[in-house]
Structure formats: C-alpha cells, structure tokens
Amino acid sequence: MAPHTDDGEFGCGGTISRWLDEGDEIHYAAFSLCEESVPEGWPKDILEKEVKTATTQLKIPIENLHLFKFPVRRFDQFRQDILEELVELRQKLQPDLVLTPATSDIHQDHSVITSEVIRAFKNSSILGYEMPWNNFTIHTTCFVTLTPDHVDRKVLALQCYESHRHRGYAREQLIRSLAVVRGTQIGVDLAETFEVIRWVI
Question: Which overall architecture, per CATH, does domain 7-198 show?
C-alpha cells in the first residue's frame, strides 16, 4: 500500500521486482495522486501518468494498479473512506502479504494508511517498509535480499517521476547506498529491510 504515488517504489521497489521475477502476483495501490503538491509548471495529473510508467518499469501489470484520489496531507479527514477502500481490496484480492509504511513513519498520511491496513487486513501478514526521511527509528526485523538487477529496476522506476527528481531523497546515490547498507547488515551485497507488523504462518 502506497499512501502517495512513488512511496511503494521508494519503500519496496527492489522487493517488488524480485517477487515479480519469482512469479508472484503483485498489486500496487496508491491512495493519493498528490495533485496539490505538483511542482509549478507541471500538469496536475502528472503523477498519475508517472506512477503508471514507474510501475510498468517494475513489471507490475497495469490492471494490478489501483489508484485513489484522497487529498494529500488530509488522510485523517477521510479515515473511514480509506478503510472501506482497503476492505474492498481485501475482499477482492485476499492477499497473503501486505506491504505498508512502517509504524514509526511520522508522515501524517503514511501513519493513517498503516493503521487502517492493520485494521483491514487482520488475517494477512503485514510488513512495514522504510522511508529514511520519515523514520526516526525502524525495527529491521525482516530483510529481502536483492540482485543488482532488482535495484536497477527500482532506480529506473523512481526516475520515471521526473516531476519529483529535485527532491533530495530521490537521489540515485541514496537509493543504491541504502540497499548496500541493508545488505551489509545481513552479510549480502544488497537488500531492503522491513518491520514485521504481523506474520501469519
């Protein structure tokens, strides 16, 4: 679950690439197209176009992309509506595993999505992904090992967000370095880390 377009790519783009390579069915849901945050000079619908290009780069089928238009930074005002959309996704998809921002993520929209994911997906395993600029701490209790190709695809997907390339956290060096750091923690070259929120066996 991505609160905003590009959150899924930042938090778990490499893992998505790996699991798609392994034949898993992946769905991507973004709850805001952030029209109020589009930089001056860009069309208001640019992020809708960019997320479609980015998720295609990751090899997610377009029919598995679910987009909603909740207003950015005001998710708390639409908590019940978001919960109902999540419940509908649960009933339609019946996922074994749901990825969402870590519980320590301080962004107001991210925390709403994660708390409602926990409420909606009581019977699924849930992992929380990291976004270092929003996490003071994160429980690194799960790691997914990656190949250079997985990280390359994550970088290429994020480069599809041309309207947001000016943001410091979008630097390619940061994305690649973080994968190296997380890999080093478990003795491999590259990885992404997650907080185990719920694990159903």
Answer: 3-Layer(aba) Sandwich (3.40)
